[in-house]
Write a structure and sequence with these properties.
The complex is a heterodimer of chains A (459) and B (443). In chain A, a hairpin with a 4-residue loop joins strand 5 and strand 6. Chain A has two domains: 212 residues, 2-Layer Sandwich (PmbA/TldD fold); 234 residues, no CATH class. Chain A is of the alpha+beta class. Chain A has nine helices and 26 strands. Chain B is built from nine helices and 21 strands. Chain B starts with a helix and ends with a strand. In chain B, helix 1 crosses helix 2. In chain B, the strands form four sheets. In chain B, strands 3-2-1-4-5-6 form a six-stranded antiparallel beta sheet. Chain B has 443 residues and is an alpha+beta fold. Chain B folds into two domains: 200 residues, 2-Layer Sandwich (PmbA/TldD fold); 233 residues, no CATH class. In chain B, strand 4 and strand 5 form a beta hairpin. The chains are: A alpha+beta (459), B alpha+beta (443). At the A-B interface, strand 1, strand 2, strand 3, helix 2 and helix 3 of A face strand 2, strand 3, helix 2, helix 4 and strand 5 of B.
Chain lengths: 459, 443
C-alpha cells in the first residue's frame, strides 16, 4: 500500500501533497431490551488527499474508490489552485517520519466470532435487566474495530499505523408511572478483546442508579460549592479549557489571541492542565497525528498560568509556535483539524481525598458521572449523571438533573482544591467538532472542588 | 448491483447510494479550503431462516457472494421476525433534485460565499462561512418487486459571526438547508437574522431569576422538541419507554399544538418519494390539536409492534435501517398546517411578536448541552448559550451565566403563544413558542 501511495504522490504537481488511506474492519452487536438488534461485521475503506500550492488554499479530495487515487491527487491540486490567498498558508517545519507502528491489539478482535461477542454483551445487558422490574428498557452495545492507516506526504513522511478500538456501553431506562430515568455506562479502550471482560458489576451499578433516581428530587437551582468526581472533572476540563486551547479557535482572530495570551492567569496555583497524546494505552493515544507529527505531552496550564496550546502544523506556523501532534481526522472522510487527545487535570496534594474536599462545605453539591458536556468557549455546560447534596461536610441525599453552567473566566479560577486520586476515564463515545464526531479522546482528573458554580434547576 | 444482490439473496432488500459533495470554507473572511467527497456504497438486508441480517460495503466492486454470506452470518445470530417487504406501489411526487443546484460551479459557490462574507463583515468580528453542495443518487429495491430510484441535491450554507471583546465571547450562527440553491432573498434573510441577534446582544444585562415567561426561538426550541421526537418514535413506544405510548387519542398538549412529519414538502431538506425500505412517502400526523395521533415506524419496528411502517426507515451503508424523521413541522394547528410553511420568507423578528406584554422574561435562542440529560423523561436543564432579557415588553440586552429548566410535558400543556416567525432550521420547521413558568436560575 505504501508503494501505491508513494507512486500516486510522485504524480502530484502541487507544492505540498499528503495522502491518507484507511481500511477499517469493524464489528458490532447491539441489544435493545431483551432483544438482539444487530450483529454485523463491516469493512470500510477510502482515501484522502490534501494539496497546497504556494499562495493558494487547501484543496481536498476524499473518496471510497481507491482506483481513483491518481485522479484525486490531480483534483486536490486543481481545487487548491482555485483559491488565491493574499497571506499564504504556511506549515510549521517538522522532521520527516518513516515508521510502521502497531498499537497493542490485546487480543485481536478480528479473530473472535460474532457469537462470542454476542455472548459477552448479552451478559452485560442481562445484568442491567436483572436489577429490577423497574428497568423497562436497556441498550447494550459492543463495538470494535481495527483500523489500518497509511500516510505519506511530499516532505518524505511515510507511516503505516494500526489502531485498534473496543467499546462496551449500556443504557438502563427505569420507569415508574410518568417518571423515567436513565443510567449510563460506557467503556472505550484503544485495546482489544481481552480488555472488556468481567464488567458485569459496572453495568449492574448503572441500572441500580437509574432505579434510585426515580425517587430522587431534582436539584434546586442556584450557585453552590460543587465537588466534581473524577469522571465529571475530566469532562469539565475538556469543555472548560480543552477546546479553547485548540489553536484553530484563536489563530485567525486577533481578539481571541489577545484573550489567550500565554502567561495569562486562568486559575489558582493548584491548577495544572495538559494534553498527552503519547500517554501509554489510552483511547486518545496515537504515535503520530494525521499530519505525521509525533504526539507529545503538552502542558496547557501550569500553576494556574496559561503556558501552551494545541496545534496543527498550520496553526503552529501562524502563531510562531511548535506543532504538538494534535491534527486529527475522524476518518478518510475528513481533513485533520486541531483536536484533543488525552486531556487531564494533574493530581493535587498526594493523599488528599474527596473527604478532605467535602469536610468544610456547609451546603453544596457532589456531582458525579457524566452524561456529556458542550462548550461555546466562554460558557459551557457539563451534565452530571447523578448527584448528592452535601450538608454540613457530609454527603447527603441523592439529587437528579445536575447540570452545571460554567464560565471560562470564573469557573477555572474558582477551583480551590484538587485531590490526589487521579484516574483516567476511558469512556466510549467521543468528542465532536466541525462535523467530526465521535473522535476517540480520554479525559483524566482527580476529584476537584469549585468554590462556587451555577447549577441549573427550579428556583 | 442491487439486482445482482437481490437475485443472490432470494428474500432481501438493498440500498445503493452514491454521493458527491463539494464544500468550500471561509475562515475569518478568507476562502481557505475547497474540497470534494465522493462516496458510494451498498447496504444489504436478508431474511434467512426467518431471521434478519445486514451487511454493507464501500468497496468499489463488491463481491456479491461475500456480502450475502456476511448478511446471512449476521442473520444467524438474530431473533425470529416475520418481516414482509412492501410490494411495488405508486410513489408520490417529491422534488428532490434541482438542476441549478447540481450544475452550480465551484466559482458560483465561491461567489455566493464571498457575497455572504462581505455582507456580514464588521469591525472586531470574525466571520466564518461554509457552503456544501451535495449531488446524490439512491436506488432501493426488494425481492417483493418494489423498486425506487431518485436523484437528489442538497445545499447547506452556514454562517457564524464571532465577536470577542475583552473577556466576552459572543458566537452567533445561522444556516440555510434546502434541496435547491438558496435564493438571494433566503441569503439576505440569513444575514439579517444574524445581524438582528448580534445587535441585540451587544448590551449585556443581568439575568432575571424565578419561574418566568420564556420565548424559545426556532433554534432555542431544540431542547423542547427533542424529548417529543424521542417519545413519538415507534421504537421508544415498542420498548415501553415513551411517555406518550398509552396516550394515543388523548389530549396531551395545548389544543393549538400540531406536529406532522412530511416527506414530500417541496424543496424540503429531507424530502424524498420513498424511504430507504421501499415504503412510499406520506405525511404522518403525530399530534393534532394537542391530541397524540401516532408514531413513526420503520419496517422492523412496525413488524414487532404489529403496526405499519410509516415510511421512516433510514439506512446508512453500514448497519440496519433505523427510524428517522424527515421534515418535521411543529406549529399551531390550523386548517392549513403544511401550507403555512411554504409561504414567503418573512422579515425576521426576535421574539416572533410574543414579547409585547411580557413584564420580565427571556428569549432563548441557544442552549448548551441539549441532548445530554435524561431527554426521554421530558425534564431539561441547560445553561443559556444565547439569550436576551425582556423587560416591559422590550429586549433590554443579552444575558449570560443563567440556566433554564423545566419539564416539556408540563410546559406544553399550556402554550402562551405561537410566534409569527416560523422558519426552517435544518429539516425542522417551527415558529417561536412562548412558554410560561420556565425556571430561570442565575449565579
Amino acid at each position: 500500500m505504501k508503494d501505491r501511495l508513494a507512486a500516486a504522490l510522485k504524480t502530484s504537481r502541487a507544492d505540498y501533497t499528503e495522502i491518507r488511506v484507511e481500511r477499517t474492519w469493524s464489528s458490532a452487536v447491539t441489544f435493545r431490551g431483551r432483544r438482539l438488534e444487530t450483529a454485523t461485521v463491516s469493512e470500510d475503506q477510502g482515501g484522502f488527499v490534501r494539496a497546497l500550492d504556494r499562495g493558494c488554499g487547501w484543496g481536498i479530495a476524499s473518496f471510497t474508490s481507491l482506483d481513483e487515487l491518481p485522479a484525486m491527487v490531480a483534483r486536490a491540486h486543481e481545487l487548491s489552485r482555485a483559491i488565491r490567498l493574499d497571506r499564504a498558508i504556511r506549515l510549521a517545519e517538522t522532521a520527516p517520519q518513516v515508521a510502521d507502528t502497531a498499537l497493542d491489539l490485546d487480543g485481536d478482535v478480528r479473530g473472535i466470532s460474532l457469537g462470542e461477542k454476542k455472548k459477552l454483551i448479552e451478559a452485560y445487558n442481562g445484568a442491567m435487566l436483572a436489577v429490577s422490574d423497574a428497568v423497562v428498557d436497556t441498550q447494550a452495545i459492543y463495538r470494535d474495530e481495527v483500523s489500518e492507516v497509511w500516510y505519506v506526504n511530499s516532505e518524505g513522511t511515510a507511516l503505516a499505523q494500526v489502531r485498534p478500538e473496543v467499546t462496551v456501553s449500556g443504557t438502563a431506562i427505569a420507569r415508574r408511572d410518568g417518571t423515567i430515568e436513565k443510567g449510563l455506562e460506557s467503556i472505550g479502550l484503544r485495546k482489544g478483546w481481552r480488555s472488556v471482560h468481567g464488567l458485569e458489576e459496572r453495568f449492574r451499578v448503572v441500572a441500580r442508579r437509574a432505579v434510585d433516581l426515580l425517587d430522587a428530587p431534582r436539584v434546586q437551582g442556584g450557585a453552590y460549592p460543587v465537588i466534581l468526581d473524577n469522571e465529571l472533572a475530566g469532562v469539565f476540563v475538556h469543555e472548560a479549557f480543552g477546546h479553547l486551547s485548540e489553536a484553530d479557535f484563536v489563530y485567525e482572530n486577533p481578539q481571541a489571541r489577545e484573550m489567550m495570551t500565554l502567561g495569562r492567569r486562568f486559575g489558582k496555583p493548584v491548577l495544572n492542565v495538559g494534553d498527552n497524546g503519547a500517554a501509554k494505552g489510552l483511547r486518545g493515544t496515537l504515535s503520530f497525528d494525521d499530519e505525521g507529527t509525533p504526539t507529545q505531552d503538552t502542558p496547557l496550564i501550569k500553576d494556574g498560568i496559561l503556558v501552551g496550546r494545541l496545534h496543527s502544523r498550520e496553526t503552529a506556523a501562524a502563531m510562531g509556535e511548535r506543532p504538538t501532534g494534535n491534527a486529527r481526522a475522524m476518518s478518510f472522510r475528513h481533513p485533520p483539524i486541531v483536536r484533543m487527545t488525552n486531556t487531564y487535570i494533574a493530581p493535587g496534594r498526594k493523599g488528599a481525598t474527596v473527604e478532605d474536599l467535602i469536610k468544610d462545605v456547609k451546603l453544596g453539591v457532589y456531582a458525579c458521572g457524566a452524561f456529556g458536556g458542550q462548550t461555546m468557549l466562554e460558557n459551557f455546560s457539563f451534565t452530571a449523571a447523578w448527584g448528592h447534596m452535601i450538608r454540613d461536610g457530609h454527603i447527603a441525599e441523592m439529587v437528579k438533573d445536575v447540570v452545571l453552567a460554567g464560565n471560562l473566566f470564573q469557573t477555572l479560577d474558582r477551583i480551590d482544591h484538587i485531590a490526589g486520586d487521579f484516574t483516567w476515564n476511558q469512556m466510549g463515545g467521543g468528542c465532536g467538532k466541525g462535523g467530526q464526531f465521535p473522535l476517540p479522546v480520554t479525559e483524566g482528573a482527580p476529584h476537584v472542588r469549585i468554590e462556587e458554580i451555577l447549577v441549573g434547576g427550579d428556583v | 448491483m442491487i439486482e445482482q444482490l437481490l437475485a443472490a439473496a432470494r428474500c432481501a432488500d438493498a440500498l445503493w447510494r452514491r454521493e458527491e459533495r463539494t464544500a468550500i470554507a471561509f475562515e475569518s473572511g478568507r476562502l481557505k479550503t475547497a474540497g470534494i467527497v465522493e462516496e458510494a456504497g451498498v447496504n444489504l438486508r436478508v431474511v434467512s431462516g426467518g431471521r434478519v441480517g445486514v451487511a454493507g460495503t464501500t468497496a468499489a466492486a463488491p463481491d456479491v457472494d461475500e456480502l450475502v454470506a456476511r448478511a446471512r452470518a449476521s442473520a444467524e445470530l438474530s431473533e425470529e421476525l416475520d418481516l414482509a417487504f412492501p410490494p411495488a406501489s405508486p410513489l408520490p411526487q417529491a422534488s428532490t433534485f434541482f438542476e441549478r443546484a447540481a450544475n452550480a460551479s465551484l466559482d458560483q459557490l465561491i461567489a455566493m460565499g464571498r457575497r455572504l462574507v462581505e455582507r456580514l463583515a464588521r469591525e472586531g468580528c470574525q466571520v466564518n462561512v461554509a457552503i456544501e453542495r451535495e449531488v446524490g443518487e439512491t436506488m432501493v429495491g426488494n425481492t417483493a418487486g418494489a423498486r425506487g430510484r431518485y436523484p437528489a441535491t442538497g445545499v447547506g450554507v452556514t454562517a457564524e459571526v464571532i465577536r470577542i471583546a475583552a473577556d466576552d465571547v459572543l458566537m452567533i450562527y445561522d444556516q440555510y438547508v434546502g434541496a435547491d440553491l438558496p435564493s438571494g432573498d433566503a441569503l439576505e434573510a440569513l444575514a439579517r437574522s444574524i445581524e438582528m441577534r448580534l445587535e441585540a446582544a451587544l448590551t449585556i444585562v443581568s439575568p432575571p431569576e424565578g419561574a418566568l415567561p420564556v420565548v424559545f426561538t426556532p433554534a432555542g426550541l431544540a431542547a423542547i422538541v427533542l424529548p417529543l421526537e424521542q417519545a413519538l418514535s415507534g421504537k421508544t413506544v415498542l420498548q415501553g419507554s415513551s411517555p406518550l405510548a398509552a396516550k394515543v387519542g388523548e389530549q396531551a398538549f395545548d389544543t393549538r399544538l400540531s406536529i406532522v412529519d412530511d416527506p414530500v414538502v417541496p424543496n424540503g431538506p429531507a424530502s424524498r418519494p420513498l424511504d430507504d425500505e421501499c415504503v412510499p412517502s406520506a405525511r404522518t400526523p403525530l399530534v393534532e390539536r394537542g391530541i397524540v395521533r401516532g408514531f413513526v415506524y420503520d419496517l422492523e419496528t412496525a413488524a414487532r409492534a404489529k403496526s405499519r411502517s410509516t415510511g421512516h426507515g433510514r439506512r446508512g451503508i453500514f448497519g440496519k435501517p433505523v427510524i428517522r424523521y424527515t421534515n418535521l413541522i411543529v406549529g399551531e394547528a390550523s386548517d392549513h398546517v403544511g401550507a403555512q410553511h411554504a409561504g414567503p420568507l418573512r422579515a425576521p423578528s426576535l421574539g416572533g411578536g410574543l414579547i409585547a406584554d411580557m413584564e420580565d422574561g427571556l428569549i432563548v435562542d441557544d442552549l448548551i448541552g441539549v441532548g445530554q440529560g435524561n431527554v426521554i423523561g421530558g425534564g431539561f436543564s441547560h445553561p443559556v448559550g444565547l439569550a436576551y432579557r425582556v423587560q416591559g415588553g422590550e429586549i433590554t440586552g443579552r444575558v449570560k451565566d443563567a440556566a433554564v429548566a423545566g419539564n416539556v410535558y408540563d410546559l406544553l400543556k399550556r402554550i402562551a403563544g405561537f410566534g409569527t416567525d416560523g422558519r426552517w432550521l435544518g429539516s425542522r420547521w417551527s415558529p417561536s413558542l412562548r412558554l410560561d413558568g420556565v425556571s430561570v436560575a442565575r449565579r
